[in-house]
């Protein structure tokens, strides 16, 4: 097993996603590559030697020594406010990874894909969508993206562009934009039945988001007849940010 080591990572680009989230592109010399769906550890070290770290999903497929993360600021957090409000192009942090081998999508996989994301859980799912595009894959993808309101959409411009074989459905829980036909509310059985793939198509299902969202979505997928071994989940909860 390859031993993971900490690597210096220089911030080379910043893209604002929402009022509280931004995508950070780092150059990491010697980066070994990664799979869509994996994550990395980010470590910050103060001048007095104090250090702290958090895990973040990779937001894009491998691109040489470039690594992208999308970070949501956690109120009263320790790491995310620094990454989003202090870190500037040219600054450095340390990265370790990639981590994880279960919640991943590989371009050679030919099964249909159902992606179910809640809030910032869209990040590793977006990496899979981008990996599909990068590989020129024709595997059908369906994305159900649950979020409070339209102002919290990550990758809004990119996901609004038509892409053959990719269907995107937004599920708003608090405030829906004008013209939305679905009533606001949490993800329901009908959402997955109408916006996803039927179980007899045997799609690979990836669910990512807060723990409650992931558990509810997985239960709904099971109720629709999806095989447990085809449902892969990644959840996050309070970590101090």
UniProtKB/TrEMBL annotation:
This is Ferredoxin reductase. Transmembrane segments: none annotated. Residues 4-105 form the FAD-binding FR-type domain. Keywords: 2Fe-2S, Iron, Iron-sulfur, Metal-binding. Its cofactor is FAD. The keyword Endoplasmic reticulum does not apply. The keyword Metal-binding applies. It comes from Nonomuraea marmarensis.
């Amino acid at each position: 097993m390859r031993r993971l080591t900490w690597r210096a990572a220089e911030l080379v680009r910043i893209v604002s996603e929402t009022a509280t989230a931004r995508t950070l592109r780092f150059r990491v010399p010697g980066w070994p590559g990664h799979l869509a769906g994996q994550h990395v550890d980010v470590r910050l070290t103060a001048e007095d030697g104090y250090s702290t770290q958090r895990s973040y999903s990779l937001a894009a497929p491998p691109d040489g020594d470039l690594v992208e993360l999308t970070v949501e600021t956690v109120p009263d957090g320790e790491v995310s406010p620094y990454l989003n409000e202090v870190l500037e192009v040219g600054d450095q942090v340390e990265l370790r990874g990639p981590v994880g081998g279960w919640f991943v999508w590989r371009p050679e996989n030919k099964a249909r894909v159902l992606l179910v994301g809640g809030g910032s859980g869209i990040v590793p799912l977006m990496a899979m969508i981008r990996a599909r595009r990068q590989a020129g894959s024709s595997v059908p993808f369906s994305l159900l993206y649950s979020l409070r309101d339209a102002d919290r959409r990550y990758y809004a411009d990119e996901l609004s562009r038509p892409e053959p074989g990719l269907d995107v459905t937004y599920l708003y829980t608090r405030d829906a934009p004008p013209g939305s036909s679905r009533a606001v509310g949490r993800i329901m059985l009908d959402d997955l039945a109408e916006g996803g793939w039927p179980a007899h198509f045997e799609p690979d299902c990836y669910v990512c988001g807060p723990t409650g969202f992931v558990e509810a979505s997985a239960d709904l997928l099971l109720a629709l007849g999806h095989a447990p071994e085809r449902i892969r989940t990644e959840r996050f909860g309070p970590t101090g940010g």
